[in-house]
Write a structure and sequence with these properties.
Chain lengths: 118, 110
């Protein structure tokens, strides 16, 4: 069945770079797009970035200068890098299958909590 | 960006109907499709897709859930409410980039 699992460092110091990995199974990254969405504690959801089945990428313009999304299809992994982290980047980070055409999030991973603190 | 507005909370009794609203700052319809989607999130869990394109039930979702509306006004209805439905519900638009979410409506028991 379809599964997505996020992994990452948990704690990152301010101004450093965050690297997150989404490992998927049950589907191919060359057939489906994957997005990252984050949720600060007790708050709502914010779309961050997407990588499509053909390898093209989209970013939230508010964060674009700090982001890079890529994939390794041989490992079934989607990678997200975010630099210049601040405390307001503290959040649960989810990856999700992103429907091409109607742009909704079909299936979500369980998420990984990232805390930005010195 | 398109702003989505939801009421923060809604109190409902079991076996009654719950109607959760979502209002958008711009029309999210295009060529007869409403680019409005709904998710359920329980504490400590990831969101789950309930409704896509305004009124289409996602796979495996009970028929107690339904979506309606068009333009800038949308509604998620749960009828009847069961104990397992206590959660926070989010609307999301995808008419324009970036896709944006409402602030969420927490469904509570009376």
């Amino acid at each position: 069945q379809v599964q997505l699992k996020e992994s990452g460092p948990g704690l990152v110091q301010p101004s450093r770079t965050l690297s997150l990995t989404c490992t998927v199974s049950g589907f191919s990254l060359t057939s489906y797009g994957v997005s990252w969405v984050r949720q600060p504690p007790g708050k709502g959801l914010e779309w961050i970035a997407a990588i499509w089945s053909g390898g093209s990428t989209d970013y939230n313009s508010a964060l674009k200068s700090r982001l890079s999304i890529s994939r390794d299809t041989s490992k079934s992994q989607v990678l997200l890098k975010m630099n210049s982290l601040q405390t307001e980047d503290t959040a649960m980070y989810f990856c999700a299958i992103f429907n091409y055409g109607s742009y909704y999030f079909d299936y979500w991973g369980q998420g990984v909590m990232v805390t930005v603190s010195s | 960006d398109i702003v989505l507005t939801q009421s923060p909370a809604l109190a409902v009794s079991l076996e009654q109907r719950a109607t959760i609203s979502c209002k958008t700052s711009q029309n999210v319809d295009n060529y007869g499709i409403s680019y409005m989607h709904w998710y359920q999130q329980k504490p400590g869990q990831q969101p789950k897709l309930l409704i896509y394109e305004g009124s289409n039930l996602a796979s495996g979702i009970p028929a107690r859930f339904s979506g309606s509306g068009s333009g800038t006004d949308f509604t998620l209805t749960i009828d009847p409410v069961e104990a397992d439905d206590i959660a926070t519900y989010y609307c999301q638009q995808s008419k324009d980039y970036p896709p944006t979410f409402g602030g969420g409506t927490k469904l509570e028991l009376k």
